[in-house]
Amino acid sequence: MAPPAVDRMTRPKMFALFLGIALGGAGLVAALFPGVWSDPGAELRAVTVIHLMPVLLATLIVQGPVLRQPVLKPLGLELSFNIWWLIAWMAPITVLALALLVQKLSGLDLALDTAGYLEAKRAMLPAAERAAFDAHVAETPPGEPLGFVIQALPAGVTFNLLLALATEIGWRGFLFREVQGGFWRRSLLGGLAEAAFLVPIAVLGWSFDGPSIVNGALVLGWCLVAAPSLVYLRVRSGSVIAVAAFRGTLWSLAAVASDLGPYATPWARPFFGWTGIVAMAVFLAVLLLHDRFAAEQKLTSGAEA
């Protein structure tokens, strides 16, 4: 009788298979649609969803048919609610506020009230379209821009959560479980894996206004800075679903960030621009202070880490 597949699967082979499917599949999607990533439209949204699927597929294949292990609990798919679920959901608002504060301190005006919001929107339109814009605003006045933040929250724990879970089940689910070592090693390797997934499409223009190598450098920086915070939320909440809620809410707030900080360049705009990286670094510092001074079980330092 042949031995089980898991007996023949060494750790290097397991990681090679997982990353080969996840990153190879995502790279293939990026290569098949090179012109879509800098075009914000319905086609981009559809292709972005397809681009997420190889990570989910790789996780399910390796965890199921290859390792023949359960999927739910080992990958952190648990509904063990605690205060960290609420923190994971609300934290993107803090990250957004920090990024906008950095914009303001760097000399960029914000649009935090209706008048400023409309002024910015109107200024960005061609002169020929401004009369139609004024007529539309007179007929349907917009709400307060800060209200957009509240409107974005439900999407973070519904549709966007499901999309975020497709990749988080790989980075903070499978890799978190299988990578050996402490907090910082797991954070670094998970961040590098996610960067390898996102950098190619960022270079092609995703989340920015056009293709550029600088896009990729910024996304790499964001992934490495964000990874420890995501691992921290993963451990404290006890579930990868809470991490997906953080990511899903962050995606929901991306358009809001552009509305509230309309004068920022794509390289400065939250969340993958440099202001978003600074904001994530501050958020990480807050979590490290919690771990150092408030948490009973230390995650980032000492023997318990």
Gross morphology is globular
Structural class: mainly alpha
Major β-sheet, in short?
none
Strand content is: under 5%
Q: Spans with pLDDT under 50 lasting ≥5 residues?
A: 1-6
Mean pLDDT across residues: 93
Order of helices and strands: HHHHHHHHHHHH
Q: Total strand count, please?
A: 0
Helix content, binned percent: 55-70%
The radius of gyration computed from the alpha-carbon positions, rounded to a whole number of angstroms, is 21 Å
**Alpha plus pi helix count:** 12
N→C terminal distance:
42 Å
Describe the structure.
With 305 residues, this protein is mainly alpha-helical. It has helices spanning 5-8, 11-32, 42-66, 83-105, 114-123, 130-139, 147-156, 159-178, 183-203, 213-237, 240-260, 274-293. The chain has a domain at 82-293. It is built from twelve helices and no strands. The termini are far apart. Residues 1-6 have low confidence and may be disordered.
Write the layout of secondary structure elements.
Layout: H1 5-8, H2 11-32, H3 42-66, H4 83-105, H5 114-123, H6 130-139, H7 147-156, H8 159-178, H9 183-203, H10 213-237, H11 240-260, H12 274-293
Helix pairs in contact: 2-3, 2-9, 3-8, 4-11, 4-12, 7-11, 8-9, 8-11, 9-10, 10-11, 10-12
